[in-house]
Amino acid sequence: MKEMILLIIGGALINNVVLNQFLGICSFLGVSQQMKASASLGGAVIFVITIASGVANLVYTYVLDPFGLDYMKTIVFILVIAALVQIVEMFLKKSSPAIYKALGIFLPLITTNCAVLGVALTNVQNGYNFVQSVLSGFGTALGYTIAIVLLASIRSRMREEDIPEPLRGAPIVLISAALMSIAFMGFAGLSF
Amino acid sequence: MNKYVERLYNGLIKENPTLMLMLGMCPTLAVSTRAMNGIGMGLSTTAVLILSNLIISLLRKVIPDEVRLPSYIVIVASLVTVTELLIEGYLPSLYSALGIYIPLIVVNCIILGRAEAYANKNGPLLSVMDGLGMGLGFTLALTLAGFVRELLGNGSVFGVNVLPDGFEPIGIFVQPPGAFLVIALFVTIMNAIGIKTRQRQLVESGCDGCCSACMSPCENKDESAPDPAEARKEAQI
């Protein structure tokens, strides 16, 4: 049990996927303009990454590994993720239109979010089993959501500030991200 | 200007994918801890980009429009796998330095972006030159970022110590926050001397410039709706 909690905390805070590993930066910078959109994207990312890590693990354990096709994992994973996102989208559209309305436009974006593929590949590299993969995927996605929601709140405060002309736009957002990253480095000192 | 040379200039300077279009930020931030890593990552991406542009350009009349994105992804993923195996075999130290970011070349938005924006509309030779230009532009930006980070954070250039012994390296620059700071610095300087980049549209319109799926509407938006308020409204929907 303790191990499982550690996996989630490690993925979410200590090894934060955006601020520490730089995966999913584009949407992190692009979507964080809007608080509501950030929260929805975060929800969609948690949803997709958790499922994708599980499915990728099953595909690897039962198809790729037994047939010695380890080198095919990049191609297979990206296709599995693309197909999965399509299926999730269709499923949500039919079964729960409310969730689909909130997350819908972000689902296609997630296919090319490098965090999804990154987590699937890292899980294989670390030799995680099914449960560990799902938990680490969930933790990573949680970390992504925490980071993007925090950045969105910082940016909503910044809107009223008088920012020097050359720093407006991307630079000030990147500097905020740098400061967040410094703060998150503090979690590396966590020991259990 | 010769149109082939024009492609090179376009990729290196005019539409530099990292500095002007703010694409491919993930590898830029992640592997620029050393200038050498920047070159390694940049050249691997360039190789994939040239070949993917060539193959996609040759197949542009064969691939049906509806399934073009999955087809591109399969082509790019195959090329990346080959590159990964080659690096693992011949450059093991680079392989361990770049790690997970080599397979992640697949989702580098520059590659799918160029396939979608250029290679599927133009001939093979021009597409190869476009890939070369874009790849070298990416390499240039990565190496530049790596150079600054290595110099400030480690006191060295390409692994050779250049600063006097009295210099205390600013460790934060080789840590993750340093990546954000150095790119922020680059864009600030470009803003200050009046070079127009696409970063403001990317960051303010809320369009994820990464994915090719939203790339075309994003570019259309740039042209048709320069009004930020309107772009913001669209982002809200």
Textual characterization of the structure:
The complex is a heterodimer of chains A (192) and B (237). Chain A has helices at 2-14, 25-31, 35-64, 73-95, 97-103, 107-111, 114-125, 130-158, 170-185. By secondary structure, chain A is mainly alpha-helical. In chain A, helix 3 runs antiparallel to helix 8 and helix 4 crosses helix 7 (114-125). Chain B is mainly α and 237 residues long. Chain B has helices at 3-14, 25-31, 35-58, 68-90, 92-98, 109-119, 124-154, 176-192, 199-205, 212-224, 228-236, and strands spanning 156-157, 160-161. Chain B is globular. The relative contact order of chain B is 0.16. The chains are: A mainly alpha (192), B mainly alpha (237). Chains A and B meet through helix 2, helix 4, helix 6, helix 7 and helix 9 of A and helix 2, helix 4, helix 8, helix 9 and helix 10 of B.
Q: What is this entry, summarized?
A:
The complex is a heterodimer of chains A (192) and B (237). With 192 residues, chain A is mainly α.
Span from first to last CA of chain B?
Answer: 43 Å
Quaternary assembly:
heterodimer
Largest sheet of chain A: none
Strand content of chain A: under 5%
Beta-strand content bin of chain B:
under 5%
Count of helical stretches of chain A: 9
Count up the domains of chain A. 1
Shape of chain A: globular
Radius of gyration of chain B, CA atoms, in whole angstroms: 19 Å
Radius of gyration of chain A: 17 Å
Helix-strand topology string of chain A = HHHHHHHHH
Shape of chain B: globular
Average pLDDT of chain A, to the nearest integer?
Answer: 85
Total number of β-strand segments of chain A? Answer: 0
Task: State the helical fraction of chain A.
Answer: over 70%
What is the averaged pLDDT score of chain B? 80
Query: Going across the major beta sheet of chain B, what is the strand order?
Result: 1-2
